[in-house]
Amino acid sequence: MANPADFPASGGCACRSVRYRLKTEPMFVHCCHCRWCQRETGASYALNAMIEMSRVEILEGEPELTPTPTNSGRIQKIMRCPTCRVALWSHYPGAGDKVAFIRSGTLDDPDIIAPDIHIYTSSKQPWVVIPDDAAAVPEFYDLPNVWPPESFERLKRAKQG
Question: What is the pTM of this model?
């Protein structure tokens, strides 16, 4: 979980054309090991910090929407820098446009974000070692049973508003 004392926190793309600030700590952080995230990122997993768009402030530039297919067949909206094409965050169909899945590696200090849970570990790369004390599930999970109550309430309010 992120430390509230580390926020607000800024980030951006590689060319610095697009800059953003997270006004508060995220609601929850997924480390997703699914094959789709591996393909999409070109890495072993995606580290996404979920936060309400109302708590994301664009400081410079304007990210460009790139519709991208998902394993479910529904469209994920990836917000990229129009110049260097770095993916900054996504909007997934289940959460809608009111919730951003911030690519944690785009933060100026990505060390402030650690996963709350590892998901889809059934397809993780065999050389990725998940700490014994880390929350991890083979596929997905039931949000109300895993998320802290205050984070789950934030999510419900974001999706309503």
Answer: 0.93
Query: Cβ of 94: how many Cβ atoms within 10 Å?
Result: 10
The strand pairing partners of 56, in sequence order, are 22
pLDDT of residue 40: 87
Secondary structure class of 20 (helix, strand, coil)? strand
Alpha helices in the chain (DSSP H): 35-41, 143-146, 149-160
Superfamily covering domain 4-141 = glutathione-dependent formaldehyde- activating enzyme (gfa) (3.90.1590.10)
Number of alpha carbons in the 13 Å side-chain half-sphere of residue 37: 21
Q: How far is CA 53 from CA 26, 56, 160, in A?
A: 10, 5, 13
Q: What is the pLDDT of residues 109-129, one digit of tens each?
A: 999 999 999 999 999 999 999
The residue among 25, 31, 26 whose CA lies nearest residue 141 is: 31
For residue 144, cis peptide bond before it (omega within 30 degrees of 0):
no
